[in-house]
Amino acid sequence: MPWSETTPMDQKTQFIADYLRQSLSMSELCDLYGISRKTGYKLVERYLKHGPCGLEERSRRPSSSPNHTPEHIVEAIVALRQRHPSWGAKKLLPILERRHRNWDLPGRSTVCDILSRQGLVPKKRNRRHIGHPGKPSAQILGPNDCWSADFKGQFKTGDGLYCYPLTVTDGFSRYLLGCQGLSSTRCAESKPVFTRLFKEHGLPRRIRTDNGVPFATNTLARLSQLSAWWVRLGVLPELIEPGKPQQNGRHERMHRTLKAETTRPPANSCRGQQRKFDHFQHEFNFERPHEALDMQTPASLYEPSSRQMPNKIPPLEYPDRFEVRYVSANGGIRWNKGWVNVSITCVGEYVGLEEIDDGIWNVYFGALKLGRLLERQRRIEDAFGRLKRHNV
User: Fold this and answer.
1) What is the CATH number of the domain that holds 293?
2) Range(s) of the domain holding residue 93
3) Are 293 and 330 within one domain?
4) Is residue 381 classed as helix, strand or coil in its secondary structure?
5) Are residues 266 and 154 in the same domain?
6) Is residue 364 part of a domain?
7) In sequence order, what are the residues at sequence separation of 6 or more whose Cβ sits closer than 8 angstroms to the Cβ of residue 194?
8) Is residue 200 part of a domain?
9) Where are the alpha helices (DSSP H) in 150-243?
């Protein structure tokens, strides 16, 4: 049997009913309900004057205010704003002061409130806050456990064209897997470089990058087209925290040497610059002793991965306990007769949902956790949205 709940309105109604029975005096009745006699007489007066509606809560807003802006000033502010929709209170007030020198005009914040109440201030779009997985914590215990990828800062070659060096290293052996000069940081140019490296050296377990293009975007788990392709190949993307390049310090230290030996001065053309990169890569891997490796070369410690790149990417698979949903062209999935936005980068793929508690689901894209779906909160938001539409 469920517990019975009483509201303040129920208690007020019961108070009036007990008063009408005349079984208790007003003092005894007020002591029974824990209110003052003043409140008791006020409730009785409202009931006798307005009936049951008089027992409802009334607004405590004052009927008048000495600081209220006069109506003719409000109308002048609204009219001037409608004539100049892009002007704010800072520009409207000086004009009104010149036109009406005898008016006692309100302050800037009050004018802003007036414009907002009149619906003349466009509402800012609420952008979804994208979290970050935090500092990388996985250990690097052998070759191909973790690769590092980054773009060395762009620079101009002698012909006036920009060069964007894409560098990829093995985190365990410091082996420089690739150093390719590209014309931009687009995924269309970066993907062929990784395809060549995967076919030549095999697949790593993880690839550590920063949060820039094309490695990450402002979506769930900061997934991009390039990192989504990695996940489908069985390679997990790993992101350092924003503004903390020391979390990828081995790669950044290599960049320092690369910049000193290949870009000062730069070559006369991108093709000549690539020859300098290739020479540096061979020297760095096979000739230059590395202090962190006890003066050994990176090539003496690196071994290709046993995981070969497949000719055809297999579909994503999930455990039987997962709920699997298809991501449609709008970047969302069907969930309880409604749409849940996931990510535009997952269009055409399947995501898996694992229930970890009542109404709480972890959402996965392959082995990568995208986020968490709170089913109860979504029901509340949907109900609130329907209520707003009904009121409108």
Assistant:
1) 3.30.420.10
2) 78-117
3) no
4) helix
5) yes
6) yes
7) 149, 168, 226, 230
8) yes
9) 187-201, 225-232
Whether 87 is covered by a domain: the verdict is: yes
Does position 387 have pLDDT exceeding 50, yes or no?
no
Q: Note the pLDDT of residue 287.
A: 95
Q: CB neighbours (10 Å) of residue 316?
A: 18
Span 58-78, mean pLDDT? Answer: 86
Q: 354 — phi, psi (to 5°)? A: -110, 120
Angle at 352 between CA 224 and CA 323, to 5 degrees: 155
Q: Which long-range contacts (CB under 8 A, 24 or more apart) does 277-285 make?
A: 277/165, 277/179, 277/180, 277/181, 278/179, 280/179, 281/176, 281/178, 281/179, 284/176, 284/254, 284/257, 284/258, 285/175, 285/176
Query: For residues 65 and 70, what is the distance between their CA atoms, to the nearest angstrom?
Result: 11
Instruction: Verify that 170 and 28 share a domain, yes or no.
Output: no
Interior/surface letters 70-92, b for 16+ CB within 10 angstroms, e for the rest: eeebbebbbebbeeeeeeebeeb
Q: What is the mean pLDDT of the chain?
A: 89
Q: From residue 126, how far is each of 117, 123, 382, 385 by CA, in Å?
A: 19, 9, 17, 16
Percent of the chain with pLDDT over 70: 93
How many domains does the chain contain in total? 4
**Three-state DSSP state, 181:** strand
Cα–Cα distance measured from residue 37 to residue 268, given in angstroms and rounded to the nearest whole number: 95
Partners of 371 in the β-ladder: 363
Q: Tell me, yes or no, whether 60 lies in a domain.
A: no
Question: What kind and span of H or E run contains 372?
Answer: strand 368-374
Domain boundary among 300, 334, 350: 300
Task: Tell me, yes or no, whether 178 and 284 share the same domain.
Answer: yes
**Model confidence band, residue 62 (pLDDT cutoffs 50, 70, 90):** confident
- Same domain as 250, residue 216: yes
Q: Is the pLDDT of residue 302 over 50?
A: yes
Residue 326: strand pairing partners? 350
Give the tens place of pLDDT for each residue, 305-319.
Answer: 999 999 999 899 999
The predicted model gives 379-385 an average pLDDT of: 47
User: What is the maximum alpha-carbon separation in the chain?
Assistant: 105
